């Protein structure tokens, strides 16, 4: 070689892992993440206490929340976090299921890789299995619609099971169903529900039982002036996206005042302009004003004299919800405000909740936006109750929009696994091995539930498979009593969308991670980042 120089393609310090090592590391990282959330699954799921870098504590068993708070660094593990995030955004519940399933699919694929089966063959098998699983789950689902109140309440209760607010799940489930029913619109014969129309507001104090549904909106603001009424019946509401203030000119102008009278005239003119603005508001016939921008002190005084209650700097999202709840139009110019723009509510009142004022807009006639005010003894209890409420509301929405539900308690997964094993025999080839692995992987859900009962998990699973062979497809694991039971009869039911989304997300993430055979990590520059004291750089590599 005549002492030839080695050729450097990548910058010095770049870490590169290839082939089987890269796959093993990625799979190990994904499995580690799945194992961390696996114990939170089911009604006997345990909670995690997460303490962040500044000492804030979160206590939860919500898969998506755990992974979000964990500040995960490994790139493959981050892809698992994406699975949970997608599940949370799409369906609201089933995040732990999706993550555990992804981890298990990768764990099973490792056995096939050890047998020298090519990753693309495994991926093909997984795709076939995914398509078949979705077909099976569709067949065993039952219909549901917005009028099936009892079934929707059961779906909400199943979503809350295992959360710390479980003790009050029946009243909470009723509130969730009432809230979703109120905001459901029918378009082209199909129910359409916007999740943001159900506002879930939390305030610590009281107990979870004090949680209430407000047929209107709760706003975390106070009435601006002490002389304004705090309790307005038959409220007529104006919504302003304009400031009740004297605007500064757009162009830069200078006013020269040479004598005190001019100054007096200038101040009087400003006061007159504010008076005119308030007069336009009064003339519209409203007695409550919600303003997205500021309200001048003098304007507050004039409004108070006219007996009008006002709140300022109300969030844009809250103003939009108020419009849906009260039927008011949002007005961008005070000159344009007319009687037609005014909305109605049975009662607007300011109440002190946990030492802070909040405005309640109640008893709207046909509100297309409602609020649920979640209460609880401590901050952590309220946070977890809010997450449970979120899961319940999103679960109901998913069930109504797809119009289908399935039995819970691992019944669906056992049935899918059974059908996949039958299907694998018809496929043959190496894909058959991958389909069987998919069937074994999906059984991780009932297996985890069986383990959490404290009884012999293998016995429970074998007996459950036998029942399914006999056609009892709704039987699953009754975790609380440690026995097998008809989940549908027990009221343990879930929206079909939870299952379909979890299967899709998990198999797609597993396929993507399996196809990676080379990981190239660029080393961060060794100097300190801008604005940081020296000597802090160069630490960004994983595993250092």
Separate helix tally: 17
Number of domains: 3
Kindly estimate the percentage of residues that lie in beta strands according to DSSP.
15-25%
Shape: elongated
Question: What is this structure's SSE topology?
Answer:
Blueprint: E1 15-18, H1 19-38, E2 48-51, E3 57-60, H2 63-69, H3 75-90, H4 95-114, H5 119-139, E4 142-143, H6 149-160, H7 169-183, E5 185-187, E6 190-192, E7 198-204, E8 212-214, E9 217-219, E10 231-240, H8 260-283, E11 288-291, H9 297-305, E12 309-311, H10 316-326, E13 330-331, E14 343-353, E15 356-362, E16 370-376, H11 379-402, E17 404-407, H12 411-427, H13 429-442, H14 444-452, H15 457-469, E18 475-478, E19 483-486, H16 487-490, E20 493-495, H17 496-514, E21 518-521
Parallel strand pairs: 7-16, 10-11, 10-13, 11-12
Antiparallel strand pairs: 1-21, 2-3, 4-17, 5-6, 8-16, 9-15, 10-14, 14-15, 17-20, 18-19
Briefly say what this structure is.
This protein has 17 helices and 21 strands. Residues 531-544 have low confidence and may be disordered.
């Amino acid at each position: 070689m005549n002492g030839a120089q080695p050729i450097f393609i990548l910058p010095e310090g770049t870490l590169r892992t290839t082939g089987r090592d890269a796959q093993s590391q990625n799979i190990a990282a994904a499995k580690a993440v799945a194992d961390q959330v696996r114990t939170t699954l089911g009604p006997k799921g345990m909670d995690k206490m997460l303490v962040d870098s500044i000492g804030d504590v979160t206590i939860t068993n919500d898969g998506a929340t755990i992974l979000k708070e964990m500040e995960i660094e490994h790139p493959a593990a981050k892809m698992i976090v994406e699975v949970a995030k997608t599940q949370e955004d799409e369906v609201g519940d089933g995040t732990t299921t999706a993550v555990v399933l992804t981890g298990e699919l990768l764990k099973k694929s490792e056995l096939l890789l050890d047998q020298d089966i090519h990753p693309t063959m495994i991926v093909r098998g997984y795709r076939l299995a995914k398509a078949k699983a979705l077909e099976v789950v569709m067949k065993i689902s039952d219909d549901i619609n917005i009028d099936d109140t009892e079934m929707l309440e059961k779906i909400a209760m199943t979503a809350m099971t295992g959360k710390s607010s479980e003790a009050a799940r029946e009243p909470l489930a009723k509130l969730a169903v009432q809230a979703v029913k109120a905001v459901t619109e029918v378009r082209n014969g199909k129910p359409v529900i916007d999740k943001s129309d159900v506002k879930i507001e939390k305030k610590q104090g009281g107990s979870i039982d004090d949680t209430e549904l407000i047929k209107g909106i709760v706003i975390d603001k106070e009435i601006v002036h002490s002389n304004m009424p705090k309790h307005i019946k038959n409220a007529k509401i104006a919504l302003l996206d304009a400031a009740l203030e004297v605007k500064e000119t757009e162009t830069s102008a200078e006013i020269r005042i040479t004598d005190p009278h001019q100054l007096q005239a200038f101040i009087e003119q400003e006061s007159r302009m504010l008076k005119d603005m308030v007069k336009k508001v009064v003339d519209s016939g409203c007695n409550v004003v919600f303003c997205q921008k500021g309200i001048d002190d003098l304007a507050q005084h004039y409004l108070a004299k006219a007996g009008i209650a006002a709140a300022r700097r109300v969030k844009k999202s809250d103003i939009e919800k108020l419009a849906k709840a009260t039927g008011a139009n949002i007005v961008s110019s005070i000159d344009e405000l007319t009687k037609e723009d005014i909305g109605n509510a049975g009662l607007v009142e300011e109440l002190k909740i946990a030492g802070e004022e909040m405005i309640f807009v109640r008893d709207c006639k046909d509100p297309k936006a409602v609020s649920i005010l979640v209460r609880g003894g401590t901050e952590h209890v309220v946070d977890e109750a809010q997450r449970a409420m979120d899961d319940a509301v999103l679960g109901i929405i998913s069930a109504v929009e797809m119009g289908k539900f399935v039995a819970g308690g691992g019944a669906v997964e056992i049935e899918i696994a059974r059908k996949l094993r039958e299907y694998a025999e018809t496929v043959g080839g190496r894909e058959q091995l991958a389909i069987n692995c998919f069937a074994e992987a999906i059984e991780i859900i009932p297996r985890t539930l069986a383990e959490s009962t404290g009884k012999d998990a293998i016995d429970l699973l074998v007996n459950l498979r036998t029942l399914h062979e006999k056609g009892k497809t709704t039987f699953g694991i009754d975790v609380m009593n440690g026995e097998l039971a008809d989940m549908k009869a027990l009221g343990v039911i879930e929206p079909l969308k939870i299952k379909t989304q979890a299967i899709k997300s998990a198999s797609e993430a597993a396929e993507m991670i399996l196809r990676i055979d080379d990981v190239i990590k660029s080393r961060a520059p060794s100097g300190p980042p801008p604005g940081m004291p020296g000597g802090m750089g160069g630490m960004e590599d994983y595993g250092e």
